[in-house]
Write the structure tokens for this entry.
Amino acid sequence: MQSPTSLPTIPSDAVSIKNALLDLISKVTNINNNYGDHEEGYNLVYNQIINQMYAFPADHSGANNMVQYYHNNQIFGGAHSHQDGLQPQFSHNDIYVLKQFIQQFNIPAAASNPNYPAPVHIMVSNDGNVYAIMAENAEFFSALMYDIYHDTHKLSKFRKNLEKEYQDYFWPGQNKWTGSQTQYEMTFLKFIKDVNEATGNGNGDLGLKMYRAKPNLTGWQELTLIQPNELQPNNYIINPINCN
């Protein structure tokens, strides 16, 4: 996320990925900003000619208040914000968008070069925390998403179960979310790992990894679920693991 040594002149609004995330954090945490009715976001680009990663703004004028990322084989990911009026964690559609990044980031050398970026979808929550999701196995994840989104019954459960779990923390009378950061993280992790047949995604472990940025964007932690007591199979806690 550090500032690149150089930025392209086209697009003229290119910024470092870190600065893009700082801008999104500012937009969700500044009470004087009025972005509650739609997402804001950035495209994340890898330019193999200058060997740099950078970001440039995405369109936010699309349907359903959702950010619209560009379709380009150099775009390996996106970052977007969820203001107070939107879901407190990744949505079901955010998961599917990761599949689209996997499909479109099509630089042949990327598959065999560990220095190339991996497809990623980043979300800045309404409290200013920064999260990312990535696929453990891109081929498996893409095939699973294709299967879910081409089956009406599976898609309905996939969408409704996650939305229903979030709604447990929503107060309609005040139009605000009442849960904690940990509760939202736990809800999403349980969903993608499908730990509960009744409330999970209905398709087994999605093969996703979830990350949370450290304060001031100084690094990342992978968030994993663990069961501290085998005699309490439904009791989970979140185990943050520092990334190198």
In short: The first strand starts at residue 41 and ends at 47. Strands lie at 41-47, 52-57, 75-81, 120-124, 130-135, 170-171, 176-177, 208-213, 220-226, 237-242. The two ends are 14 Å apart (CA to CA). Residues 1-5 have pLDDT under 50 and may be disordered.
